[in-house]
Amino acid sequence: MQDFKQHAMLPATTHDEQARQDFVGAFRGHLSGRLMPGTYQVFASRVEPAFKAKHGRAPADQEEVRKVMTQDSFYQFWSAMQRRSQEMLWESVIDPTERQLPELIERARKLSRKNRGTLRLDPELEIPRYHRAADIHLQPGGYHTDFTADDVAAGVVYDKGINLYMGGALGAENDLTGNTLLAYLREKHPDFKPKRILDVGCAIGNSTLVWARAFPKAKVHGIDVGAPVLRYAHARAAALGVDVDFSQQNGEHTDFPDGAFDLVLSHITLHETSRSALPRILGECRRLLRPGGLMLHLEIPRGRTPMEKFMHNWEAYNNNETFARFMTDIDLVAESVKGGFAAADVQIDQFAPKLDVSQMNYTEHFFWKILAGWKR
Ligand SMILES: C[S@@+](CC[C@H](N)C(=O)[O-])C[C@H]1O[C@@H](n2cnc3c(N)ncnc32)[C@H](O)[C@@H]1O
To answer: How many CB atoms sit inside 10 A of residue 140's CB?
Structure first.
């Protein structure tokens, strides 16, 4: 596991703030590494046998598992602790951010002025209902709320927050998802050398920078609906010495011209949209691709057995990942066809990054689902 890189846009922590973050990290590691596997044990040893005794068969799907598992005292204990750890996670990163916010905003302004990449914000952009309705992952204000002028807080909090959320497994620059999708491209399309790249739902640019570094001659754009994460992304990219053009746009309908990109990407973004937005985003990706262009989306793993699916969907029911629940069952090829792709040009792959996740004991989480589409 690599240490998290302390770049210029991250706040300093006092001794007590650091101790609190360390505690949250260790607590979450304990919950996912030691307690969470126990939920599978209680399912196998007492919940499923009781279900079988009553019904003469195993639970048929995740909903049947849900009905019985949510009554189990061990599951209830783990679930309550997991939810509380998520709330503590944000509390532990919000305190140092709030304390240093004026300095962080000033630092972002200075870095942005030095930046060769651009930042284009649109105060008139309507934030989609799927972001306004609930704070995804319980992050107060979500990705889009400005609490003050030129705010960067949502980005600061998200950067350190996802590092703690994944127990450090996202890597020194939270770039595991970008590196995984890049590894997929290199394995499946080794000769594809994009010159114009778009990352949809780029948030703080943690995955976007991977592509800018991998293809230094390419023009790389990142779009997101959230202004504070984009201000942060722009300053963070400057702090890390990478040029990317960021703009505040909805991936359902952007202002880029037809055929503007060779490669359109997203990393763990689609499951945070909605049933109606999904085909619109896929359609927009198709419009933006030049003939022969490639679209790649990396999505969260959803589990294989009913019990695994139930556990994977804990986030949907308890961590405001509301749409993720439906992504489990959606036919992504059919959605791409609605977006204008030919079914034969769309492929769904499972792809596992090579990394050491032994500390998390949760390896099935790392078999990502990749949706690939070509515009021939
Ligand atoms: C989980 S974050 C993904 C962050 C980043 N791509 C990564 O690899 O870690 C999802 C991001 O998608 C953005 N998003 C969701 N719906 C969007 C849309 N319709 N258009 C543009 N961005 C969107 C959210 O604002 C959020 O920043």
So the answer is: 14
pTM: 0.94
Q: Are 251 and 201 in contact (CB under 8 A)?
A: yes
Instruction: Give the domains, in start order, of the chain with CATH numbers.
Output: 1-376 (3.40.50.150)
**Rounded to the nearest whole angstrom, what is the distance from the C-alpha of residue 195 to the centroid of ligand 1?**
22
How many whole angstroms separate alpha carbon 313 and alpha carbon 317? 7
Instruction: Evaluate whether 167 touches 92 at the Cβ level (below 8 Å).
Output: no
* Extended beta strands in the chain, E state: 119-120, 196-200, 219-224, 245-248, 261-267, 289-299, 346-351, 368-375
Closest-lying ligand 1 atom to the alpha carbon of residue 226: 25
225 ligand 1 Cβ < 6 A: yes
Which residue shows structure tokens 């230094």?
A: 216
269, 272, 273: residue to mutate for ligand 1 pocket, most atoms within 8 A of CB? 269
Q: Distance from the CA of 135 to the center of ligand 1, in angstroms?
A: 13
pLDDT in tens, the chain (376 residues): 557 888 999 999 999 999 999 999 999 989 988 999 999 999 999 999 999 999 999 999 999 999 999 999 999 999 999 999 999 999 999 999 999 999 999 999 999 888 889 999 999 999 999 999 999 999 999 999 999 999 999 999 999 999 998 887 788 899 999 999 999 999 999 999 999 999 999 999 999 999 999 999 999 999 999 999 999 999 999 999 999 999 999 999 999 999 999 999 999 999 999 999 999 999 999 999 999 999 999 988 777 899 998 998 999 999 998 888 887 778 999 999 999 999 999 999 988 766 554 444 444 445 678 899 998 8
Kindly write down the DSSP assignment for every residue of 140-155, as one continuous string: TTTTT--SSTT--HHH
Gap from CA of 321 to ligand 1 centroid (Å): 12
Pocket test for ligand 1, best of 184, 225, 275 (most atoms within 8 A of CB): 225
Distance 134 CA to ligand 1 centre (A): 15
Beta bridge partners of 245: 221
> What counts of helices (H) and strands (E) characterise the chain?
15, 8
| Cα distance between residue 182 and residue 210, in whole Å | 8
